[in-house]
Amino acid sequence: MPPPKRGGAFPHYGDRNSHINKKQRSGQPVYSSAAYGDLPNDRGPDKPVQRSIAPPPKLTLSARDMESGLVALLDRFVANETTPNANKDILHHARELRRLLCTRTDAKSQIMRELDEKRPDNAASVYIPEYIERKVQAAKDLPPLPPIAEPHLHEAVFTHRTAHVNPDDPKQSNNISLELDYERLELLGDAYIELIASRALYNRFPQVDVPELCSWRERLVENSNLSKFSEAYGFPDRLKHRAHWDVGSKAWQKVVADMFEAYIAGLVLSNPENGFEIAENWLTELWAPQLLGFREKIIENPQARNELNKLVLVKDVKLNYREEKRMTYDSGSVQRFFIGVYLTGWGYQDEWLGSGEGQNKNQAAVSAASAAINNSPVVKNVARQKAELMEVKRLEREEAEKQEDLIAREATHGNEDKNSNAKLDSGGDTKRKERKGDAQGPSPERKKKHSKKEKKEKKCKASTDDDSS
After folding, report:
1. Residue 389 and residue 119: Cα distance in Å, rounded?
2. CA–CA dist 95, 104 (Å, integer)
3. Backbone dihedral region for residue 235 (phi beyond 0: left; psi -120 to 50: alpha; all else: beta)
4. Hydrolase among the record's keywords (predicted)?
């Protein structure tokens, strides 16, 4: 039985050049048997094929290729030698040699240089998430964070009391108070921060009133301000806790601010000699933009309300100051009141004159009155009418005074005439009485005067006689 044919009767061992006469495919090279040393004239069925093997061509590598090859060999060498028992000096020198080869000027290929010149890669090599970039921008202008020298205080600043609680051990809750956390340090740090803020304001604003200084101090030490510093330095990311907070809530904002206050306490406690000075210099530098932005409230005309009253108020005329909208807070958490002034009288009914704003209602009312005096045409019209009315009243008053003076003068002249007539009558009566007395004899008064005169003359005469004797 003949053996079956292999491969579907394909002549595997037939003439190897039997396919030469077939149509060649496009792009396919044609191989010649002469390249392998075949001699078709000497070839026979019983004669073996003789081949001659050409020596391999000699390869020549450029300096750039050699460098790239050395880099590849060094990479393989470092990979093979990186074992637990490897010689660190050898690995170090191998890595250093690789780095020097890669940093040469001609290490980059010509095609890459052309690509970089024509199509440069302008994108950042490392992608920074948006929230990280915000933190970097917030912290780039901040002063360096002073370190806390004591490790246990540094750890306590970033430890919440819940971190000491093991939910699997209920007996551990009795010893929680023995562990130090940021809340206990915050009690002391809060006092230090308020003292430093008071010193910064007291020394730099000697001309500002105390109530306004208190308002500025509140703006420096409020939680919203301290939490910004805490987040800029990355304090919340370092907090160890087992609690759950809403990041946007006020409770979380207070935790972040308390961590900053605890850090101030850690600075002071870890360095009893210079800690307070370090904390004061650091806080003052953090507050410097706010301190430069504080301005004393200047009221251009503090007597504006009195002046407006003098311009428009008379009997049955009223000025009404009232809030035009609700109180708000500005960027520095300072209250802002909005007051308007309205006029009733002089032909107007609840007429708007001006508006103003201020940190309190009195400042806002003064600002509204000043705006009304400077800008309101109604005030100018009313002031003109009042001036005319006052001029008329003045003339009427002067005329009335003249009439009163005239009447008083006439009354005075009449009384003088009566008095003169009365004097004349009294003088005639006196003369008549004297003549009548002379006829009847001296009166008792005249007799008394006469006796006194006689006694005086006798006394003088007696003294004269004594002197002569």
Report:
1. 86
2. 15
3. alpha
4. yes
